[in-house]
Amino acid sequence: MTNFRPHIGIFGRQNTGKSSLINLLTGQDTAIVSDVPGTTTDPVKKSVEIFGIGPVILVDTAGIDDAGELGKKRINKSLDAIKKVDCAVLLIAGNQFGQYELDLIRHFEKFSIPYLILHNKSDISKIAALTKTVIKHHSNAAVIDFSAKDPGDSEMIIDALRKIIPRESQQLKTLIGDLVQPKDLVLLITPIDREAPEGRLILPQNQTIRDALDNDCVTVVVKDTELDDFLKLGIQPALAVTDSQAFGYVATRIPDDVPLTSFSILFSRMKGNFHDFLQGTPHLSKLKDGDTILVLESCTHQTSCDDIGRVKIPDLLRKFTGKSLSFNVVSGLSEIIPGNYALVIQCGGCMVTRKQLMNRIKPFTEKSIPVTNYGMALAYMNGIFERATRMFL
């Protein structure tokens, strides 16, 4: 199954050669190189192909030693980027290894980010034995001495990167392959409403279709309005997957002995901490008047009056609980709005990597704030949470 490109973050002080490293890895002038400190400001994502690894997203960050009030903001942006990468490169030069580097290592370890340490500009000054000793005292990461001016050094760096890129970033687990057998009939119910993109299916639907085909299943795709017409054929599917918004209707039509779940729940199992979502969902029944709920969208999109995260879920949750509730919505991987949240509701996460979604949720689970996702929340409020998740237990 096709996966999103792994994100490789490049971190270090100003003028250690972060942009030059990107150009070395890609074999072209992908990033602007300058001796002027602060050339790179906010983290910049570059979609590139690295021979020997494949398509990746390189995240070029501002220097961790930037100065001034604006510099502090740039540093915070660089540190925040750590939560959104799958692996990292800590770049040093001139045998400088001190508190700046130790702070980065602490952040890498906090978010379980695998990393390697590169000492650049070996053509000017090779890494000293003392520097290696100090590094090894604080880190078990691989240390490589290289020069961004030497194209021949790219191979050993690429080989080291290949070893630290998490396998889960290169190939996602199957969405449904462990739930079905070859030649099984998989029924996908895909409502087409105002939120549906013109002339195409949304990404979770596309990926589930592909995963079913990859697992040699017979795949039938229908709108909810044609579901009854399919069922009249008397063919019983081995698995039914619906858009979460149609859970209530679809559950009344699909026989109880047919496993039924949603695209969002499938993605929550593959992308997030499924156990945390399972444990957090029943807290929907424990909400109180005045509680604030955080809704996390992992992509940015044009909203409408039918928007699931901004309109449908808040409206249904107020009706379900009978409580006066407030909602904050954060889209993409934007900074979280501070607040005293009673619950976090995460979308399926089809547009982000597993590492990004896990680190998005981590600050809340560490504070014992319950988390759920769109599909589980809608299943729970439609009274079919147990049915929609039983196949995974």
Word description of this protein:
Strands 2-3-1-4-5-6 form a six-stranded mixed sheet, sandwiched between helices. A four-stranded parallel sheet has the order 8-7-9-10, sandwiched between helices. Strands 12-11-13-14 form a four-stranded parallel sheet, with helices on both faces. The chain is 36% helix and 18% strand. The chain contains 15 helices and 14 strands. It folds into three domains: 7-170, 3-Layer(aba) Sandwich (Rossmann fold); 185-265, Rossmann fold; 273-392, Rossmann fold. The protein has helices at residues 18-26, 68-82, 99-110, 129-138, 154-164, 167-170, 203-214, 227-231, 247-253, 263-271, 274-280, 308-321, 354-366, 374-381, 385-389; strands at residues 7-12, 44-50, 54-60, 87-93, 115-120, 143-145, 185-189, 218-222, 239-242, 260-262, 292-296, 326-330, 341-346, 371-373. It is elongated, with a radius of gyration of 24 Å. The model has no long low-confidence stretch (mean pLDDT 88). α12 packs parallel to α14 (374-381). It is α/β, with parallel strands linked by helices.
Binned strand content: 15-25%
Report the end-to-end length measured between terminal Cα atoms.
23 Å
Instruction: Write the H/E string, N to C.
Output: EHEEHEHEHEHHEHEHEHEHHEHEEHEHH
Mean pLDDT: 88
**In the CATH hierarchy, what is the superfamily of the largest domain?**
P-loop containing nucleotide triphosphate hydrolases
Oligomer classification? single chain
CATH overall fold name of the largest domain = Rossmann fold
Structural class of the helices, strands and pairings? Answer: alpha/beta
Which blocks of ≥5 consecutive residues have pLDDT under 50? Answer: none
**Radius of gyration over C-alpha positions, nearest whole angstrom:** 24 Å
CATH class of the largest domain: Alpha Beta
How does the major sheet shape up?
Answer: 6 strands, mixed
In total, the number of domains comes to: 3
Helix content: 25-40%
What is the approximate shape?
A: elongated
Number of strands: 14
The largest beta-sheet arranges its strands as 2-3-1-4-5-6
CATH architecture of the largest domain: 3-Layer(aba) Sandwich
